[in-house]
Each structure stands twice: as structure tokens, then as C-alpha cells.
Amino acid sequence: MTTLQPTPPTTTALPALAARVRAARSSVIRDLLALTERPGVISFAGGLPAPELFDLDGARASFAAVLADDGPRALQYSPTEGDRALRAAVAARCTERGLPTDGADVIITTGSQQGLNLLATALVDPGDVVLVESPSYLAALQCFALAGARLVPVPSGEDGIDVDALADLAARLAPKLLYTVPTFQNPTGRTLDLANRRAVVAVAEQHGFRVLEDDPYAELRYSGEPVLPLAALTEPGRVVSTGSFSKILAPGLRLGWVRTDPSLRAGVVVAKQAADLHTSTVDQAAAAHYLASGRLDAAVARTRAEYRRRRDALLAGLPAALPAGSRWTSPDGGMFVWATLPAGWDTTALLPRALEHDVAYVPGAPFFPTDPEPATLRLSFTTYGPDAIAEGTRRLAAVFAS
Ligand code: PMP
Prior knowledge:
This protein is α/β, with parallel strands linked by helices. The protein is 43% helix and 15% strand. The protein starts with 18 loop residues before the first helix and ends with a helix.
């Protein structure tokens, strides 16, 4: 009888991981944030949509319908660009928001995070300059860094990106791309006004770079008037946008999109083929069915009304919670408030003390591509109801008083 012999031990060293992964920053803060999930902690850190607002009945009905009506198709491989009906529905929503869009311009992605990654692959060569807001959405910075980009921060203030600084950097560095979240930005909650949007696209036109407009929050507006997307203010192709169902429907579906023009479409499709062939067929079909059922607008309206109350609860609690001399944003929508404490405070050093008080936030430092500001922090207001938010701000007050 033959017995299987164990594989002899390897005698040569294993090759190192790719340099781009080795260079990626691993964060101490991530380890600390894992502790914020401990029961009893009121966490303003996570940025999670409120699960009790998910339209479970609607989701159940749509998944049941697509499996009953055409189950084999829903479980089969499908085109890389995405489900035709879902692309058309996304295009119709963009068009309603003032951005005329054809279904052919839309590529469905596995969350908008994948859209960012595909665009980094399709657009960025190693060494290319990518301009980013400072502070900016961390996971987008990772996509560009992994593609080998040279990330250059553009200063951003109360009104969003500083357009004069942008023009100056563009003239000196010949960037390939500007990455921006112009509406209810992550992490600041700030929105760029129409005049500044026109100025940003004018700089892009003049200096010949593209703009990536990352726009997952625009439908979560609680006050003020909608502002046209950057992509609606310039010629086709200058601005490529990413959007998402994560904040208006459910993040676990992992459904987002890239809105592009023919000059970029083939590049994004090739990158997506290499990444995952296509986004889940059944999830796309269920989402298309859900949109066709007309339930989404009512669900978004409920979410907006509830998040408005939560934002107001957080803003009401902050004056007593934060040290004298602190400043913070009052966003018209989205999920985040950004606070700046007086010079000398270090929110990273304070996070363990916050956890002792069963409350958490995200320190602002990691959102800065360079030169972190230690006295900043991000607070998300969507996860808990107003009472828990009020209790959370009382705990924050104890953290900053002790
Ligand atoms: N862009 C921004 C600015 C975000 O805040 C997020 C999620 N936090 C994403 C993109 C990615 O979202 P998703 O992949 O769920 O669509």
C-alpha cells in the first residue's frame, strides 16, 4: 500500500510581496477602530448606514421576483458593462439630477469603490501626478497609491477645494487627474458651490487634466438646494463620475457605477474584466427590479428625514461636547461632521481615552495625504438614533474634560 509523502520543506526564501503593497501604509488607527465595535461603545467612527432603514420587504420581494421570473438568467454569467435595465435606471436618475446620461455611458461596478479602482487602473501610470483634496477619502487615496500615482494634496478650506491653489499646482505639475468629492465630502461634509465648480472644471479644461467626481452622497441632502454635478458643467469626457447604491439602498449589495464617455469606456471595461468579469448578476437584476417597482424614492425620502434628525442631534450636542475654541462643519447632507479642536489637541492620542468612556470617532490624521492635522476628527451621524447620539456627545464631553 502506498502512503502519501509530506511535501519536503521549502529550502529557498519566498519572494517578497510587490513593492506597491509593501509601500501601502498599514494604520495603527485601524487596529484602534476595531475596538470601537465592542458592545456598549457609541461609535461615531464607522460611517455605517442605518440598518433599520433598509427596505427589507422591498429587497425580499425583488430577489424573489427575479428568481421566480427568470432564475436561470439571474444566476448566469452576464456582460461586464452590467445589467441593461439597471444601467438605464441609473442613467435616468443621473438625468433627473441635471446630468443628461445614456444607459450606454454607465458601467455597473461592485460598489463605487471598485469604480475608483478601475479608474485608477485605466488612467494612472506609475509616477503620474494625481491631485487630491486635503483631507480626502482614504480608500480612494489607496487606489491611486497602488496604481503608482504621485499624490499631491490641494489645500481645501471652508468652501471646499481651493481653486487658486489648484490652478497653481496644475500649472507647475501637469497632473493627469484631480480626484474630488464635491458634494457632502468624506470626511468633511463640505460641498463645493456652483461658482467654484465652474472654476474647477475651467482649470481642468485649461490645463488638460481629467476630473474624477466621486459622488455617493448627493441624494442624501437634508437642507439647502441641490448643486449641479461637475460633469454637467463641462464637455463630455472631462469629468468621469462614480456613484453608488450603498447610501441610498444598501451597502451590502455592493452596487455602484462609473459614468463615463466613449474615450474611457473600453479601458474601464478591460480593467473590470480583469478584476471580476462582472458584478453579481442576481444582485443587479434584483436592484433593477426594485428600481422599476418605484420603491426607491420613498425609501430615500425616509432615510433623508431620519438622517436630518440625526445630523441635528449631533450638531446640537457638539457645543457642550468639544473643547472651547473648537470648530466644526454643519453639512447640508451626507454622513459626516468634521471637527477641528484648538491647536495642541491630538485626537489620535485621545482615542484610547474615548474608548474608556465607551465612545469613538475617527482621528482626522489619516485623511491627510501629507502633513496630518492632529487636532481634527470625523464624526458620523447616521448609525444611531437621536437619543444615542445625545448620549454619545455627553460621553465625548467627558473625554475632552478629563
Ligand atoms: N467614495 C466615498 C467618498 C465614500 O465615502 C465611499 C464609502 N465610504 C465610497 C466611495 C465607496 O462606497 P461603495 O463602494 O460602498 O459604493
